Task: inverse folding
RNA sequence: GGAGAGGUGGCCGAGAGGUCGAAGGCGAUUGACUCGAAAUCAAUUGUCCCCUUCCGGGGACCGGGGGUUCGAAUCCCUCCCUCUCCGCCA
């Protein structure tokens, strides 16, 4: 959420910045400062009265102790209380309104990101590796997976419905291998601490990271409890430090977490209906960082490099793009997507999204740090990125490592996790 | 799910309607002593909000919310959480 104090002085800048997102947000800024002004007026008067009340009550105490009459003072306080009640009600109304508005205003896009309305204007930063040159028509992971009997979409549909998959045999093992491989790289080489969080979270957590209140339709909600299935590990892991003040010496804090992720995918009915690309449930290894405000931009570059290291170790061709203002997620100030080459689609597809949220999530979820220098508190900057989406990585491996006979070569780096298995072949 | 106990500052722990943001201890910081350290002594040691250019002033917060009262950490209601025992269970 944006800082109301900052907005008082920079409303025009905020409006111009938000306009770049192209979703008509500036309108929501209207009335905000009026309510803020009204809130402060009422608060001021209320606090003055409370000060009087305090003094009068103390007088009553003294008088009663001395056995004197205090009826007059008591009556005065009664009158003051009536006024305070009205004022506080008004303050609360204003606060609620301001809060409700602020929670629906997205983060300000960073100045460095390109203009644009959708993914078409995202800008490639660099690419790495060459798309494989097949001497045959490459198959899709769906065809490969089904003929190798390691993926079963049909039975998944029976069990659960559309957009679910069953990984089977060596497929299940490969998925597990990918997850373990990624966690190992991030903990042993990239300096992250492993977290295994709950997969059900409450409303406060989802509000903290920005999924609520605006994007409830994307979430699976429990019927009988105020809990939601996590759409990403970002939610439980970022909220791990909600309502906390971290000592500056503890920063940066870096966590890696494997979790399944659950998304309703409302509004994407026609998209990626076949295969693993878009599922209601998928696995992801997520990287989350908490850093001092001055360090978040370098941290973002490092985060992207950490995510890239997985693709490099697996020799998968990919590129890095920076999202344009119109394609940016709600809470993010800047986002790099990693896109991996998918031979069956002849294109690069998103496999990771790495973002700097600056102080936006920290302000929503009250994650602060105490400065070493002067003991003052400030909001941390939060970042997170997929490192990587396991389901899509599974797709990339099947498709990029497929052979003319329909078998799949296991990348060198993974064999250790599969008891040295070099091939996935039809049985 | 049933029965009971409890949630107070970084931690431990008192406080049981009146000047309590809260005793005491521990921890931490600073100063004194010391060549230095330890020990000792002294001071400081929460967060948020409002007003103020600075200095400073004020309000709120004792799990959350509501109530009683001139006055609530203390009384009442309600919700949440933790712990113990029983039941059930991976």
Result:
């Amino acid at each position: 959420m944006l800082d109301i104090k900052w907005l008082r002085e920079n409303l025009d800048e905020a409006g111009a910045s938000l306009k770049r997102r192209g979703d008509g947000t500036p309108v929501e800024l209207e009335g905000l400062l009026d309510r803020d002004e009204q809130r402060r007026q009422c608060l001021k008067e209320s606090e003055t009265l409370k000060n009087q009340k305090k003094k009068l009550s103390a007088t009553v105490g003294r008088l009663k102790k001395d056995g004197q009459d205090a009826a007059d003072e008591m009556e005065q306080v009664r009158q003051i209380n009536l006024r305070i009640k009205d004022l506080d009600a008004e303050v609360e109304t204003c606060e609620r309104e301001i809060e409700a508005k602020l929670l629906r205003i997205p983060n300000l896009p960073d100045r460095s990101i390109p203009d644009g309305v959708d993914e078409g204007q995202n800008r490639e930063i660099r690419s790495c590796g060459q798309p494989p040159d097949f001497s045959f028509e490459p198959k899709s992971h769906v065809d490969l997976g089904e003929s190798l009997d390691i993926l079963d979409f049909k039975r998944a549909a029976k069990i659960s419905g559309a957009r679910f998959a069953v990984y089977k045999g060596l497929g299940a093992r490969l998925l597990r291998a990918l997850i373990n491989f990624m966690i190992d790289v991030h903990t042993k080489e990239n300096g992250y601490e492993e977290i295994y969080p709950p997969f059900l979270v409450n409303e406060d957590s989802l509000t903290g990271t920005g999924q609520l209140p605006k994007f409830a339709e994307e979430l699976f909600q429990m019927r009988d409890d105020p809990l939601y299935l996590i759409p990403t590990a970002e939610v439980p892991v970022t909220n791990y430090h909600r309502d906390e003040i971290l000592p500056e010496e503890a920063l940066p804090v870096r966590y890696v977490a494997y979790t399944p992720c659950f998304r309703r995918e409302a509004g994407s009915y026609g998209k990626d209906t076949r295969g693993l690309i878009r599922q209601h449930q998928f696995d992801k290894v997520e990287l989350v960082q908490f850093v001092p405000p001055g360090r978040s931009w370098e941290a973002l570059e490092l985060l992207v490099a950490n995510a890239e290291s997985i693709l490099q170790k697996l020799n998968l061709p990919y590129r890095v793009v920076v999202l344009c203002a119109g394609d940016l997620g709600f809470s993010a100030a800047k986002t790099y997507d990693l896109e991996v080459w998918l031979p069956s689609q002849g294109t690069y597809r998103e496999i990771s999204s790495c973002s700097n949220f600056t102080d936006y999530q920290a302000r929503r979820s009250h994650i602060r740090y105490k400065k070493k220098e002067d003991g003052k508190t400030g909001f941390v900057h939060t970042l997170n990125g997929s490192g990587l989406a396991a389901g899509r990585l599974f797709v990339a491996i099947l498709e990029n490592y497929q052979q003319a006979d329909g078998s799949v070569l296991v990348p060198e780096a993974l064999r250790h996790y599969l008891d040295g298995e070099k091939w996935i072949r039809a049985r």
About this structure: The mean pLDDT of chain A is 94.
